[in-house]
Amino acid sequence: MIRAVRREPYMPISKDTISSRSRSDFLVYLILLVLILFVYTQTRTHDFINYDDETYITSNSHVTKGLNAQNMIWAFTASWASNWHPLTWISHMMDIEIHGVNPGAHHFTSMLFHILNSFLVFFLFRKMTGELWKSCFLAVVFAIHPLHVESVAWVAERKDVLSTFFGLITLWGYFRYVKKPGIHRYGLILVFYSLSLMSKPMLVTFPFVLLLLDYWPLRRFDQDIPSEAKSQKRHYGLKSKALQFSIEKIPLIVIAIGSCFITLLVQQKGGAVGAATMFPFWDRVANSLITYIIYIKKMIWPFDLAVVYPYPPFFPVHKVILAGITLIVVSISGFMAAKRFPYIIVGWLWYVGTLVPVIGLVQIGSQSMADRYTYFPLIGILIMISWVVPDLTACWVHRRKKLAFCAMIFCLCMTISAHVQTRYWKNSIQLFQHALGVTSGNWIAHNNLGCALSQQGHTEQAIPYFQEALRINPEYDDARYNLGLAFVAGNRFNDAINQFSRILVTRPHDKDALVRLGRIYGFQKRFDKAIDH
User: Pick from 166, 395, 432, 443: most CB atoms within 10 A?
Assistant: First the structure.
């Protein structure tokens, strides 16, 4: 027998209540805006940096020519910089079209998207949960956390804020679809999800996130379960609903698979996918396990942040085992507490699941991890904290005042830390000097600091940094090439010949090294050698 659902009597919401809610929401938006402006307005005076900004913008003729039909076609067909993100290219072209090659204007656009993303985080969780201050805390920490500085203050990482913007719009579309299903609303979900992946293929596990939201806070798993199945809810309700909701997301999964396929082809073509011989499988597994824990540590204690973290030469076994055990224990605990505290497992799996594409199992580049990778995944951990702390402190005396005080102190510390972290992004010299101060064995930072010094005419000061990069990583040909250029600038031609020749030992067809050698031999009137090169 199916039990009828008892309806609560209709209680109209007064205009005063609506007005009070609107004022509270407006206050949160104002707080978010003020905090973000305090942290990031300084980027209006920041320069481009010599780490991807040149490749993406200043030295990219397709971008610097602005928005036109030819460049639009290029954006959708190019594999430049081993990436396929046409909307990101178009956003950079639009900046050029409006502002020219003005770094401050490009930084402003990234900050604007971060403001919109922070607004959307609050708006979405306010709508989905009805909770004002929990959603406020979540959005504020998202807005001003130092881990997110890299995504906002680095122009080349426009793809982070742009991808997340369309991802959050997709979440809003999904919320509307759940409230009132329809083909048109589902179509909008597909469109915005595609736009997110065309900005950066980060959210390929997004269908999984939607399934988590079905469980909480949307609670679709609790809907329309027959009374005779209540005692077997986990066997009947969860399984049948999970299957139903998974099938519902097949079109999104197909789009995600297509994005993965395109990305893998482009990355392989550009040589960005680390070979198994360079990064063995077990090293990648070890790095992934440890990185999950390090990100959480940096979320709580966001200091010693760097633009690049070099891949470690080895992984201590005890740290790998401890990280693995921690992940397993938290996951099991989350499942066990799911009935009472559903947001724990939802937030945890959000964090773990959305990091999968960039956690390092498929190695992209030579870094072990990156702050920018936490921009969207960190929302999961913030969900856990924002909801579990108030619930666990329910018996406290004067709980609201104590929690408000702790939240304000935490947010104040994060805001100041983010403001300081943003300063390091003013130019390449400050950025890589800071990176060298908080990391060790960082050959990339040594090389890029040397490049920044060379570009300012301090060639002699740059040489030791190139040499140190090569001492750490003798196979780092970029540093060897830059060292050769520095020797040429100092008229140390024989030293330069030695560096360029060593590049040709491992890369005999390196055009840049061949051209440089030919020019040096020509300058020395060794024309027989010059002709050979």
Answer: 432
